[in-house]
Design brief:
heterotrimer, A mainly alpha, B mainly alpha, C mainly alpha, A: mainly alpha, 3 domains, globular, C: 0% strand
């Protein structure tokens, strides 16, 4: 009974937060509530006993997206494009009636479809859990989520790394800079933040390595370790340290493509030796998975930090 | 026994919702920034209680990551993009 | 119901009471600074109580070390956050008279 009570509170909070995000009085409040929504969603994932997804949601959905939105907000404000009255939501009573009818009908149909899908699921067999557990022995890792991400569905992870790479390339091309050296130097902040980041960076690196290592047998893995690493690099920048711009241009680019390349290299090697792309050797599967995870961690960390850094003010844009 | 921890987690969750009221109403921007502070402590407490209630050790790692990310969130809230004017203090 | 469980429940309840006090302060205090103060101090104390309660519940050393590490990190993080927000409030208050 307590379980259902907790779940219903979570659902109500999610709906409430989502409604307030859309109806807030100014952009800053909307971003703060968006971050809140992301964190409540992370708690929902914890409740569903999926800590891996909770970490990913809290990191990317709440913190990174929130930080990028706040930066965008500040740029808008400095350029002068932010008006205090920009949020003029039409109240429901003033909407044309066919808009109202259309949106209501869409919500109704979607709800019916989703509810029938969920109720049908509970009658089906256990899903793929049994299959995964049956094949876990030879997969090279003891944690089912890692086995699925890096072995059974390795293609998807490879393509995800490619998508992250494309995102960074996209941001860089919009900013018209080919590397991070055209960024203006970071703004110095208070001594307190500097010293906190100075003290906490070793912990961040330790947590990143710890999550990478634990991915082998417990919730963790490459993506979680990568987002913690990326968050650490972003924290460095926020504390006034030059962070990733200290890296040589070539080093940064190699780190970006390392994950994608590792998968490609392994896949080509297995294509040449066994005729199947991205097939793992049963004997060496655990070593291969660990190498892939390490490369992916470095890539994901530098990509996410690079996404945020590429949005910072450029040298040529600063007022003289 | 795990019911107690679940109930405790729900109680803390309700306190988060009550605190969010201040974020909705709060007249100044600083009031809205309190949300990050709220989530750092209360969110971590909820994670730790859920870890005990669900008997999952991985959720404690989630709590650790929560803390690191909330530092980033608060630092992002108070950042300035340009250096301060020479008129202000360093 | 061993003695450890009873103490764990007591500590968790105390922690919950402090969290409640923090949120009530956040809602009822007149000024942003005082709300910040109430939230930071009371919430961190509440978290400390809950961590002690959970340590008493699982008497395994690795878990206790991890819980204490999390608590220390939260202390560092929230005290820095308190300073940052307080600094922000002060700077906003300074810039306002300059605009007028």
């Amino acid at each position: 009974m307590t379980d259902t009570l907790f779940d219903m509170t979570l659902c109500a909070a999610l709906i409430l937060a989502a409604w307030r995000v859309l109806h807030s009085s100014d952009h800053f409040q909307a971003v703060v509530l968006f971050i809140t929504f992301g964190l409540i969603l992370a708690l929902a994932w914890v409740r569903l006993e999926a800590p891996d997804i909770a970490i990913a949601e809290a990191a990317v959905g709440a913190s990174l997206a929130g930080v990028m939105l706040l930066d965008a907000l500040r740029v808008m404000r400095s350029v002068g494009k932010e008006h205090e009255q920009e949020k003029r939501w039409t109240s429901v009573a003033k909407l044309p009636s066919f808009h109202l009818f259309f949106s209501f009908a869409t919500v109704l149909i979607l709800s019916v479809v989703l509810i029938s899908a969920v109720t049908e699921l509970s009658d089906a067999q256990g899903g793929l859990t049994d299959l995964v557990h049956a094949e876990l022995e030879g997969s090279g890792t003891k944690h089912p989520v890692t086995a699925v991400l890096l072995n059974f569905r390795g293609y998807d992870t490879w393509i995800e790394l490619g998508v992250l790479l494309l995102a960074v390339l996209g941001v860089l091309s919009i900013r018209e800079c080919s590397n991070l050296h055209s960024l203006a130097p970071p703004v110095a902040t208070t001594i307190v933040l500097e010293n906190l980041v100075r003290g906490i960076m070793p912990l961040v690196l330790l947590v990143s390595g710890y999550l990478l290592w634990r991915g082998g047998f417990a919730p963790g893995g490459a993506f979680q370790a990568g987002v913690v690493l990326g968050a650490g690099c972003i924290l460095l920048w926020m504390a006034g340290h030059r962070s990733l711009t200290m890296l040589h241009d070539a080093t940064w680019r190699i780190l970006l493509i390392l994950g994608f390349l590792a998968f490609l290299a392994l896949g080509s090697y297995s294509l040449l030796s066994t005729g199947v792309f991205l097939a793992y050797d049963r004997q060496y599967a655990s070593i291969q998975i660990f190498l892939l995870e390490s490369a992916a961690t470095l890539s994901i960390g530098t990509t996410l930090a690079g996404l945020m850094l590429a949005l910072q003010p450029l040298k040529k844009d600063l007022p003289r | 026994m795990h019911h107690f921890y679940l109930l405790m987690a729900m109680f803390l969750f309700l306190t988060i919702l009550a605190g969010l009221l201040r974020v909705f109403i709060g007249p100044t921007k600083a009031d809205r920034m309190l949300a990050a502070q709220l989530f750092t402590t209360t969110g971590t407490a909820i994670c730790l209680l859920l870890a005990e209630a669900l008997q999952l050790d991985g959720v404690r790692d989630t709590a650790l990551v929560f803390v690191i990310l909330s530092i980033m969130a608060v630092a992002a809230f108070v950042r300035r993009l340009e250096p301060k004017n020479p008129g202000g203090e360093p | 119901m061993t003695i450890w469980n009873i103490f764990s429940i007591l500590f968790c309840l105390a922690g919950g009471a402090f969290f409640l006090a923090g949120v009530v302060g956040m809602l009822r205090f007149p000024d942003a600074m005082s709300r910040l103060h109430a939230l930071t101090k009371a919430d961190n104390l509440g978290l400390g109580f809950i961590v002690v309660g959970l340590c008493l519940r699982s008497l395994v050393v690795p878990v206790i070390i991890k819980l204490l590490l999390i608590w220390l990190t939260v202390l560092l993080a929230s005290s820095t956050a308190c300073f940052l927000v307080g600094n922000y409030i002060l700077q906003e208050a300074e810039e306002k008279p300059q605009e007028n």
